[in-house]
Amino acid sequence: MKDLIKNNILIVDDTEANIDVLVETLGDEYDVSVAMDGESAIEEVNSNPPDLILLDIMMPGIDGYEVCRRLKADAKNREIPVIFITALGQVEDETRGLKLGAVDYVTKPISPPIVKARIENHLELKKARDDLKKQNEILQENVRLRDDMERISRHDLKTPLNSIISLPQILMQDRSLAKEHIEMLKAIEKSGYTILNMINLSLDLFKMEKGTYQLNPIGIDLLSVINKIIFDLRSISEAKGIKFNVSINEETFGILGEELLCYSMFANLIKNGVEASPSNGILTIALSKEGIGDAIISIHNYGVVPEGIRCSFFEKYSTSGKKSGTGLGTYSAKLMAETLGGTISMFTSENDGTTITVKLKQAEIDNISILSSTDTSNNQNVKSDMEQLPSLKILIVDDDEYNRIILARYLNYPKLNIEVAGNGKYAVEMFQERNFDIIFLDMEMPVMNGIDAACLIRKLESEKSIKGKKTILVALSGHDDAETCEKCLKSGFDAYLSKPVSNKKLRETLLRFFSNKLDIIDVEVDSDLQDLIPSFLSDKKGELETIFELLNKNDYDRIQKVGHKLKGGFNMYGFTRLGAISSAIEEAAKQKDYDKIKNNIEFLTACFQNIRVKYVNMD
User: Fold this and answer.
1) Any residues with CB less than 8 A from the CB of 570 and at least 6 apart, and which?
2) Rounded to an integer, what is the distance from CA 143 to the centroid of its chain?
């Protein structure tokens, strides 16, 4: 059954007789419009785009070739099929027309049945292309919506998680709590962190599929990770009577990776091994090194993979016999192994059981960050650190009441005057009425979001020509990707904290901007170099500013080079502490670790401002 709406055909020819023949041939089945020269044809197409064009070549004014060229150069018209109808019959004439974008070529005198058949074929092809284009647009929109929903879900889930994780920490400060109550609070806190890791991992897997995941590998003691997995799986393994045999010849086993990815990957594989093992069996995990740089991890059980899924074992949704199986376990393990720069394989047989072999990159167990060398978790140290702060006026802006309560409780110190607001608009109004030293702004709030509020605050500061130090703005967000962080920093924020915000991170932020606790760094330099040091330090300050600029551009290669140059220069003249921090910047740039680079730059800047050079005679 034909569509009730007829397709529109535009006939372009300067000869009336030719037009009459075509109109008579096509008039019953199509809506036909006519143009008798090239200019008129282009005007008609622009005002009333046809579904197909029958185009004569030899016409006065601009010929058919030029008409076709202009139509195909216009994005809104280039998809309209063009069939040349002409008396020109040379091969080069036909080739020229097809190269210009025509879909067919019919020579005069025309055969009405052939013309009709070709028109019908090309209209069907056009319809198929249009349908495919629409489907592709729908798929792209669905992908965009999935991305948006993923981000929204992560943010919305992280907001209540902030309470689940933080409130137990606050409650446990009550020394009158019974031991069993403290254990329950710890269990709630642990469950909260488990959910947080699951949320983070869900988006990470999606990024791995798209090839956009940014790996930040560090040295990890894999043996510790595997022992933790075995402990976490004890209820499942004990129920089946499964015993673990971990085979390793060294006390530690270093691989290069990310702890969460490694935990998730091997937890999946070991859990699958336990479930597939016969009851009261043994599951063997062997860790060994192969050649230079390769770490081999094999997981063996005496179960057998069903023959029907052996070839598709690592494919998405591949599962067999598990009622609650999603078919994503081994698929995600493969994604993670490849993301970590490794490989994964499976061997199974009736006699030998099943062995999963993962090959990863070796690494030394050396993952101590310069910035984490001081532990502020001790209550006495925390109190001492916070006492060094001056009196501060702090504004906490978040649409979630419990988040405001938690952050205010974390900052419950005598010198800190805390105020709260539920949205960005109210925060801007409060800023106009009174000055704040620091404002913590949630990114996603009703009425006015954090970025709009930050831009308004910076604009108001500019209009008032406020002299001296500006208000410190700290972004709070459920999103922890580098893109969101960079967007916030470009919008006028001084720092960025991802939710859930820990007590430690909150204190570190205040101490970074308002504490003078950093000791003076005394550096002894040969007095013969006294005339060189001032210009040397000035140059290094310029290089440090360059790294800030490069970080905003995510130019990690150049950051690595500048960090290396800083390290060499500082070490040469005896500024060894600054050289060590520069080395950390260089290493973080190799790993493309945005946060670690940023933190070390800020730390280096603070140290740089506290240098005291002593010139001594070293003869």
Assistant:
1) 540, 576, 578, 579, 582
2) 15
Residues 588 and 537 in one domain: yes
Give the residues across from 294 on adjacent strands.
290, 361
Q: Does 13 fall in a domain?
A: yes
| Rg, the chain, Cα only | 35
CA distance 239 to 280: 9
Of 574, 595, 576, 575, nearest to 585 by C-alpha is 595
Residue by residue, what is the 3-state secondary structure of 285-315?
A: EEEEEECCCEEEEEEEECCCCCHHHCCCCCC
> Contact at 8 Å (CB) between 85 and 108?
yes
DSSP result, 523-569: EEEEGGGTTTHHHHHHHHHHHHHHHHHHHHTT-HHHHHHHHHHHHHH
Structure tokens at 292: 């230079």
* CA–CA distance, 11 with 35 (Å, rounded to integer): 6
Sign of the alpha-carbon dihedral angle for 599, 600, 605, 609: positive
Residue type, position 377, single letter: S
- CATH number for position 33: 3.40.50.2300
| Tally of domains in the chain | 5
Model pTM score: 0.45
Cα–Cα distance between 318 and 331 in angstroms, integer? 8
pLDDT tens string 277-335: 999 999 999 999 887 788 999 999 999 988 878 888 878 765 655 544 445 678 888 98
Beta-strand relationship, 343-349 and 294-301:
unpaired
Q: Which tens digit of pLDDT belongs to each residue from 324-352? A: 444 567 888 898 899 888 999 999 999 99
The last residue of one of the domains, among 494, 513, 532, is: 513
Full residue range of the structural domain in which residue 173 is found? 136-210
Residue 263: C-alpha distances to residues 177, 247, 279, 375, 491 (Å):
33, 18, 25, 25, 36
CATH number of the domain that residue 291 is part of: 3.30.565.10
Tell me, yes or no, whether 122 lies in a domain: no
SS3 272: helix
Beta bridge partners of 34: 11
Measured distance CA(80)–CA(53) in Å, rounded: 7
* Nearest Cα to Cα of residue 494 among 468, 476, 474, 471: 474
